[in-house]
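I'd like us to work through together how a protein chain folds, taking it slowly. To get us started, please write out a protein record for me. Label the sequence line and the structure token line clearly, so we can match residues to local backbone shapes. Once you have written the record down, we can walk along the chain together.
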Amino acid sequence: MPAGTIILKLGEYELKVTHPDKMIWPDMNITKLDYIQRMAKLGPYLLPHSENRHLTTIRYPEGIHGVSFYQKNCPKPAPQYVRTAKEGNIEYVVLDSLPTLVWLGSLYSLELHVSCERIGDPLPDRWIMDIDPSLEEEPRIMEAASLVGELLHSLGLDAVPKTSGATGIQIVMPIERGPTFDDLRAFGKFISEYLTVRNPKLFTVERLKKDRGALIYLDYLQFYPGKTLAAPYTTRARPGAPVSTPLTWEEVGRNPHATDFNLLNIEERLRTRGDLISKLKPQPLSRVLQSISAL
């Protein structure tokens, strides 16, 4: 066994982890082994949002300041406990078990992005609006999220704002089954265009970044089959080890920063608050869609 290699027990399985002391987030003093162990503790909260979905990872073999690459196809060789699903020419990992999560961590998979659609299921179980700033530092991002939340509340709907862990924020709304992805895209278009008309100095629906100026993009197109979004509780390969974290609307009102929720403090937060997305009951979007179509 190479020097420095350790063995992790994963129930009935074992995993060899090389270079456990390699620094991944130097600014936070987080090593490879730290990352793997902390992600294992996040597993019960993360896995419900990734199981039965196609997974795309971004791997950073030398830590967040090194070269990175996207990976859609399952790395080879893969342990027997790793489940995969084929879509076209790609054999995706399905992140549905703690051993699979730990194995991905051992491969320096620092970002986990999951498909909008569930495998083999044509109907969505949630609606997501991706709020994407044009500026790297956007002090109005939480104000933007609040305006989306206020509009949803006026329609009798509730949702959970979630930091992307990078610069943006997403609005996640579990829904009662029935609406199609096309229905949800139409709903997102309605929300986005309404808010853009009401707040033309804040929002845009212009997809090309070069044409947005400093406006915040309401991306209702990203939530669709074949596309991916950062999974709740994935880390992001940025200084501060930020974690994509669901928030309360009260927290949004206090204008937090993405790095306020990171790999070193997220476990304690989840112990006290739990997963805010799973706590929200599915919303009756079909009724709202019928009301909107009657306008």
